[in-house]
Design goal:
Keywords: Exonuclease, Hydrolase, Nuclease. The protein is of the alpha/beta class and about 375 residues long. It has helices spanning about 20-45, 65-75, 175-180, 255-265, 290-295, 310-315, 325-335, 340-360; strands spanning about 1-5, 50, 80-85, 105-110, 115-120, 125-130, 150-160, 160, 170, 185, 195-200, 200-205, 220-230, 230-240, 245-250, 270-280, 280, 300-305, 310. The chain has two domains: about 1-240, Metallo-dependent phosphatases (Purple Acid Phosphatase, chain A, domain 2); about 245-360, no CATH class.
């Protein structure tokens, strides 16, 4: 039985643009530290083989410290490591992969033609190919058939499964089915996929091991697989230092902080949350600044969004024969004509500020 680790899409040196400069720098350090933690997992978990399916780097511009930490971690794994460069870290003579010498146990595919590396001591062969430009419109798997040489054929590849028009190595289900592979280790999609069998070939995306924004929510990690003859099994291993989570909280007829607290899990201090407040409020709306100060310490980072709407009883005063009534009637017409939530939010804010001005009060 052969144990293997399948990971992809580290995107080392990502800018983490949604965070403060200090937090962004800390997240980059944590992303690099993941490499050492993963090497320790490999050493302690009966892993015989590591498959890394591209976009290890976020771009061709890499800090020397990052390159050194990756090289050291891969060497520390102490088993064969295979890398298939992707669209963000495509192989070229000037890419980070060509920067210096890599440990002897590391094999980096550097051609758009599929190459096979036999590992008779493990009873497997590992195939792979590389992006050699930011786009790869010609399918790298097209026409490939694994050799019948008595070794179990595996492949590590960056690409877009089931997306025929993709510029990022489109891979069809038919190509996978005809490949003769036992397992196709994919990268490119940042959301983990459940393993799927196409023909006799199992394939999966592990997703990214660390989320980088609110488009990469929830648990992140990698696959720990085993190969026993032609039988392949996979187990997802959560591994992220921090999680991104997004919530909607209805604050109608509730104190906003209490409404948020009621839906939070017990521990959030290591994670990054985006919380959208919905429901109905009076014309004062939500004091986001005060709420941020109250709830912020519960999180590594917190983003609050006010998507509440004005209660119907506020609009009822539009019938008054007064300046307030005239103002509300005009804004209600704009509300009714609004074509999307963004326009309705703009009208809501205009009502709140306008009524605050009419009442000679500050809008908190």
């Amino acid at each position: 039985m052969v144990g293997f680790l399948h990971a992809a899409d580290f995107h080392l040196d990502s800018p983490f643009a949604g965070l403060s400069p200090e937090r962004a720098a800390e997240r980059r350090r944590e992303n690099r530290a993941l490499l050492g933690r993963m090497a320790e997992y490999v050493r302690c978990s009966s892993i015989d083989l590591v498959l890394l399916s591209g976009d290890l780097f976020d771009s061709g511009s890499v800090y020397q410290e990052t390159w050194e930490q990756l090289s050291r971690a891969l060497g520390d794994m102490g088993c064969p490591v295979f890398i298939a460069p992707g669209n963000h870290d495509f192989w070229s003579p000037s890419s980070p992969y060509a920067r210096g010498s890599w440990p002897d146990n590391v094999h980096i595919f550097s051609s758009a033609r599929v190459e096979a590396v036999p590992l008779p001591e493990l009873g497997v062969s590992v195939c792979g190919a590389a992006f050699t430009a930011p786009e790869q419109t010609m399918p790298l798997l097209e026409g490939f058939r694994a050799e019948k040489d008595g070794l179990v054929p595996l492949m590590v590849l960056h690409g877009d499964l089931g997306a025929a028009a993709s510029p990022y190595n489109p891979i069809s289900h038919e190509q996978v089915s005809a490949s003769g592979l036992a397992y196709l280790a994919l990268g490119h999609i940042h959301q983990r996929s459940e393993p799927v069998r196409l023909g006799a070939t199992w394939c999966a995306y592990p997703g990214c091991p660390e989320g980088r924004g609110f488009d990469e929510l929830g648990e992140k990690g990698f696959y720990h697989g085993t190969i026993d003859g032609d039988d392949v099994s996979l187990r997802f291993v959560p591994f992220a230092q921090r999680r991104y989570e997004s919530l909607e909280v209805d604050v109608s007829d509730q104190e906003p902080a209490a409404a948020v607290e009621a839906v939070l899990p017990p521990s959030t201090e290591r994670d990054l949350y985006r919380i959208a407040l919905t429901g109905e409020t009076d014309e004062r709306g939500i004091d986001l600044s005060a709420l941020q100060q109250q709830l912020g310490p519960r999180f590594y980072d917190l983003e609050l969004l006010d998507r509440t709407r004005i209660r119907e009883d506020v609009w009822a005063r539009a019938e008054e024969d007064s300046l307030r009534g005239l103002f509300l009637r005009e804004l209600r017409e704009k509300w009714d004509r609004a074509s999307n939530d963004e326009e309705r939010e703009t009208v809501t804010q205009a009502v709140r500020f306008g009524l605050a001005a009419l009442d000679h009060r500050d809008l908190v």
